[in-house]
Each structure stands twice: as C-alpha cells, then as structure tokens.
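Final report, Chapter 2: Outcomes

The project's central promise was a pipeline that accepts a single protein chain and returns its three-dimensional structure in a standardized token representation, suitable for archiving and comparison. That pipeline is now operational. To close this chapter, we reproduce one record exactly as it appears in the project archive, with the input sequence first and the structure output second.
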Amino acid sequence: MRYRPLSSRLYSKNRELFMQAMRSGGLAIFNSNDIYPISADSTLPFAQHRDIFYLCGINQEESILLLFPNSPKPEHREILFIKKTNELIAVWEGQKLTKNQASALSGIQTILWLDEFEALFEALAKVAKVFYFNTNEHFRAKVETQTREDRFIRWAKAKFPSHPNEKSNFILQKLRSVKDDEEIHQIKNAINITEKGFRRILPFVKPGIWEFEIEAELAHEFLKNRSDGFAYNPIIASGKNCNVLHYVDNNKQCQSGDLILIDVGAAYGNYASDMTRTIPVSGKFTPRQREVYEAVLRVEKNAMQLLVPGILLKEYHQEVGQIMTNELIGLGLLNQTMVKNQDPEKPAYKKYFMHGTSHHLGLDTHDYGLVDQPLHANMVLTVEPGIYIPEEGFGIRIEDDVVTQEHGLPINLTENIPKEPDEIEQLMKQA
C-alpha cells in the first residue's frame, strides 16, 4: 500500500469501545463501499467506507465486518469477511489480502472468505436480539445513491422482519469525534504533504497561469509524497471566483492584481487535511487586499483561542460572529446602525461571511462530531473565517487545522504552512 498503516492496536481499541456501547445481544454489521460505475465498463476509483476502515483498517472492496460481543462462541465476536482472490483476479487486478494479512492489519482473529458470510450471518442472527445497521446520519449528508450498506439493510430486514434495529452511526459519531494520538499523527502526515504542495506553488504562481495548472502542481507534489490524492475537490479560485464558496471548475486564467483562494488538502491513509490560503497573483497584495487579509487573519487567530473543551460550537460561532462584525466595521463594510438594526436570525456580518468557522476533521473532511455537545480534548477541527466582497472583486479565506487540548489552547497542526502576508510575498519572489 502507498501509506504506512496505523497499528492493529488502534482498530482493536476502536472495536472494543464500539462494542461497549452496544445493547446486550447486539449484532453490528459494516460493509465496504461499492466500486461505483460511470458508464460502459468504467468505474470511479475505489474509496473505502470510513466507518469500516475506522473499525478494522481494511482498505479493500467487498469486505464485511461483524461485531457480536455476546456471541456464545468467542471466535464469532469479531469476524471479518474478505474477498477471496483467484488466478483471474490476480492477473487483472493484483492479489487481494490474504487471511493472515487481513488479521495483521485489523487485529481480528476470525477471517473468513466473503462467500461464507450469508450462512454464518443467518445463524448468528437467530440468536441476536438486535441488529446495528450503519446508516449515514451525518447532519450534512444528502445521499441519493443506493449504497452497498443500503442493499444489505434491505435484505436483512426482509430476511428477519421481526428483528429490532439500532443505528451504529450514533455510537460512531461520538467515538470518531475524539481522535487517538495515532490518528492525529496520520492527519499531521497529510498536513505535512499539503504544506509541501503549497510551498511548491508559491514561486510558481504568476500572471497568466491557469487555475488548473496550480491544481496540477499540487497533485504532483501530493502523489510524489505518497498521498492518496486530494482529500476533497480542490478549490483554486482566482479573481471573482474567490467569492464562490465551492468553486471547483479551476479553469480561469489568473490575472495580474487578482487574488487566488486555494482551498486544498492532501489525504494520507484515508485521513484528511484541510487548508485554505489566499495569495496575490502578482506576488504582492494591494493595500486594500492586505487590509482585508489582515482582518481575516485576526479573526482566525482569535477564533482559534476559543476552541477549548467545554464550549459549544453554537456559542463559538456566535462569538466569532461578534469578532467578525467588529472587523467588518473597521473595514467600512458595516456600521453601527446596520448592526443595531440587524435581524438576530440573519446577522449583518453574514453578508460578507456566510459560512461556519469550524468543522470536525478526520477520516472525512467534514468528519463526525456531536455538534450539539461541548467540545472535548483531542478533537481535530478547522478554523476558517473569510470575508467575501463581490463588489470589490475578491474574497479571502484563511484556514488551519487544530487539535483541542485537555488544558490550554489548541495546537495548530498547520502552523508551518505560511500565512503571514509578508512571508507569502517573500516566498512568491523566489521564482
């Protein structure tokens, strides 16, 4: 594999914590993702379902994990089913995992071939009291495609209509929101690759360069350093495109005097990084661009200090909104009258800063996290304020990744990625 895997100890711990949260007699099932078709015989590259990966570290299609902590037979308390290879598969796709390899990666002792799943599941289901199905309950999720997990759930409900069921995702949201030290190290690996990519493009950018050329330079550096690739669709937005929050066309030529908003992150071992920097095409900020940039930077630094255990994200976003309001007044974009007369449900600052400041980060870019509960130590979050001024033709966002601490301020995992305007200008001169 391209990346250095995490220890089987981590996956064993994750499974143990999950099983401790299950009801007595519960049987939990986790499926790999499908390989999704495009058309004809073309498919998208395989991307593992993050939940099964979190629990066993297996990055192979057609894998199934069963957790049945109250099984009368100890060998059936953790079972991993994997695809059996053959000569034809070996020739066309390469060897799949052996049972010994799957056991070493996951820490699971009972490894069976996939064709043994149905018979054993039916036998275990007859003594299980409740199924744990892994539906997608992320608050941002909008899934229109039927997944492999969906098909299994439909089959299991038809086969055992009287079985009650619970949602695994509610347990996983709690567990995955707090990161193990090994996970934080893997995120840091992804961040280090992102830093290399960003430093690569600083002297490369100049008037006339195309957004997709910058994307290509980043992709080259990411892959050269054993990244999985981009953790999400990269945003390379120059000029007025800076004001489109999820601009991913990346097809405009960069013009002298414009800014480029670069929102990218490398993935490593399925863990994501998430960084945004805004840089001047010509290598030097105009006075107005720098004024706005420094305002965003102040908001970001102040917001970062608020991410401590015990705070609710709703309260945090409200405090950041007040900080942003003061900066927008200083920039002449808002005034006291506008703030006084604002709709509390739609505060005035939202005209120029319309998105949230932070989200959880981990195996997913928008990772699991209990957004209505206080933060805990060892949560990894982004900090990403922005000011977008379409009437002035530019927008600025600055984003870092931090990990909360038991005591004191969070640690900025992306602190080595340049963001001070003087440093950015100096590095862009080194062509």
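Archive annotation: The first helix runs from residue 8 to 20.
This record, like all others produced under the grant, will remain available to the consortium after the project formally closes.
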